[in-house]
Write a structure and sequence with these properties.
It is a single chain. By secondary structure, this protein is mainly α. The chain has seven helices and no strands. The longest helix is centred in the middle third of the chain and has 28 residues, at 78-105.
Length: 141
């Protein structure tokens, strides 16, 4: 009988899957991603291609980054999987930190907080959830 998957791995895998699905959604529905992040492509005819940023950065990059980390977490395991997930977790924690600073310092530029108070805890939670297998190391010496 195979040992069951540790709960920290399940939490990390669920968070990575959620984030990969966000990327997949942005890859195939870039207008949805545009609405979520509330950015618009540059309408200037001198600067074409801005719309591709939604498919590339919010789509392909997020999808493959999280999918790769998920595969390494579930298939490779050990310290290699920790090295794969930590930069991804750090990215989400950094996003939460940056958004927190924006919430505190950018009142005029943000006009209204909108979903910022929702995104801040979500980004911190995703970062911590993705990094949760690190807790296994401390609990299983």
């Amino acid at each position: 009988m195979e040992p069951s998957m540790p709960v920290f791995t399940i939490v990390s895998a669920a968070a990575l899957t959620f984030c990969a699905l966000i990327g997949l959604g942005a890859l195939f529905a870039p207008k949805w991603a545009q609405g979520v992040v509330r950015l618009v492509p540059d309408p200037s005819p001198d600067k074409p291609g801005g719309f591709s940023e939604f498919r590339a950065t919010y789509g392909g990059l997020l999808f493959l980054l999280h999918t790769t980390a998920l595969v390494m977490l579930l298939q490779v395991g050990g310290i290699i999987s920790i090295l794969a997930i930590m930069p991804v977790a750090a990215g989400w924690l950094g996003a939460g930190f940056g958004r927190s600073l924006s919430y505190l310092l950018d009142n005029n530029e943000n006009r209204q907080p909108g979903l910022i108070p929702v995104w801040i805890p979500l980004e911190f939670a995703l970062g911590l959830a993705i990094a949760s297998p690190v807790l296994q190391i401390g609990l299983n010496p």
